[in-house]
Design brief:
By secondary structure, the chain is of the alpha/beta class. 25% of the residues lie in helices and 27% in strands. It has five helices and 13 strands. The strands form three sheets. A six-stranded mixed sheet has the order 6-5-9-8-7-11, with no helix packed on it. It has a five-stranded parallel sheet with strand order 1-2-3-12-13, covered by helices on one side. A two-stranded antiparallel sheet has the order 4-10. The radius of gyration is 21 Å and the shape is elongated. The protein starts with 12 loop residues before the first strand and ends with a strand. The relative contact order is 0.15.
């Protein structure tokens, strides 16, 4: 039996960006079987996404295809600051200091420009950097800084992401999963009729409840806009 579009249980999600949002590329993706067009709100401007949405809708209608549009919200983007030297070699067992402010160029200091994160760290917490490639085990927290030992070493580069923080306490981080930028992007996406919103770095039910409240406030309680929870911890 040949399955028609819409009957498959697996959906093809395609990310549209600067090199893939022109009409000819979108039409080729639709004909190749794209089910969901993903717009990454971490990049580009809202007006660019608005034009892409209009193109998707028009091409889908011309191709008689039912294409859902997903706006992927950036979420709290936590990154390492500017390193000196860059990259910074870290060896297992080395003691390092995580500091929110400018730090001297040293193999023992790592700039972490997120004081709200450092304030919540406690001894026993584990900080993972660069998609988990490097790990630091925190054992001291004082004077707005945290320090610990490198558990998994390697070369740390400037501006890489902080992929996970495993807290020793049961208290969730107070850093909001839905930032002000996310609220603006979500509102704009809802204004232009997206079908799904994806929330990044979801840590609890409350994160989803906050986004659902925004959707219902703007689109009404009967809104059919779906929410996708991205578990990235």
């Amino acid at each position: 039996m040949t399955l028609q579009r819409g009957e498959t249980r697996t959906k093809m999600v395609c990310t549209l960006g600067p090199v893939s949002s022109d009409e000819s590329t979108i039409r080729a993706l639709v004909r190749a079987g794209m089910d969901v067009a993903r717009l990454n709100c971490s990049h580009g401007e809202a007006d660019e996404r608005m034009r892409t949405i209009a193109t998707i809708r028009r091409v889908a209608e011309e191709e008689d295809a039912n294409i859902a549009i997903l706006a992927d919200l950036q979420g709290p983007k936590l990154r390492v600051g500017q390193l000196d030297p860059d990259p910074l070699p870290l060896r297992e067992g080395q003691r390092v200091v995580l500091s929110p402010g400018p730090v001297p160029g040293s193999a023992t200091w790592i700039p972490l420009p997120h004081p709200e994160l450092i304030a919540e760290l406690s001894p026993g917490d584990l900080v993972r950097l660069d998609d988990g490639a490097l790990e630091i085990s925190v054992d001291r927290c004082q004077a707005g800084q945290a320090s610990g030992l490198v558990r998994t070493g390697g070369c740390l580069r400037s501006r890489v992401g902080i992929s996970a923080v495993c807290c020793s306490t049961a208290i969730p981080l107070k850093i909001p999963a839905l930032t002000e930028k996310d609220r603006r992007d979500a509102s704009h996406a809802l204004d232009h009729g997206v079908d799904f919103l994806a929330l990044s770095f979801v840590r609890s039910l409350e994160n989803i409840v906050a986004l659902r409240a925004l959707v219902e406030q703007q689109s009404g309680r009967g809104s059919t806009v779906g929410i996708i929870a991205k578990i990235e911890k």
